[in-house]
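TL;DR need structure tokens for one chain.
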Amino acid sequence: MTGEIMVEEKKMPEEESKYQEAEKKESVDETQLDQQNIDSSIVNLPEKSKQQSHQGKQELMQEVLVADSNVANLEQKVEAILFMAGKSVSITDIQKITGADLISLKQAISNLQHWYSSRKSWLEIIKVDKSYLMRLKPEYTDIVTPIVQETELSKRSLRVLAVIAKNNGVLQSKVVKMLGPSVYDAVKELKQKGYITTEVKGHSKILKLTKKFTTYFGEIPV
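>> reply
TL;DR here they are.
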């Protein structure tokens, strides 16, 4: 009886050992499977990241292009307002006309001021209290004043002449889009007084300055 008990006691450790080995093997298999899943995820991750990164860059570029376009359009609107006003215009009025927010509007005005300054234009945009004014630079006033008095050009014609001087060889249709149908009468007046010539091109005309203009006003800075 003692011998039987001893045999049973010997078998139990062997069975326990086999059970433990089976557990270890199962644990190893699960660990290897988890590692394979992790490795697979790591392999796929860079490709997903590249796609997301590329898409993000495209979206960012589109936003930049739209922003640049909006700023450029706003600058053109502000320039047209100040040019046509002939007097200082409050930033509140400019904001009402353009519908732009204050920060964008101030940036557009700042860009215009820098542009006129950097190209050595005979025009400038200055701040007067809370308003802005586009005017002839003071150093050109002495040149222009006697000419204006002598020619007695209308304010309308002077504006058209300023556009032509800024864009010598411009199409009449383009000036009309900028300043309106009153341009036609102004062009007739300027041509009669010898300051511009016209040349038919398609359904429009090319407007050019004459020697008389250069004699009175001098060469216009480019």
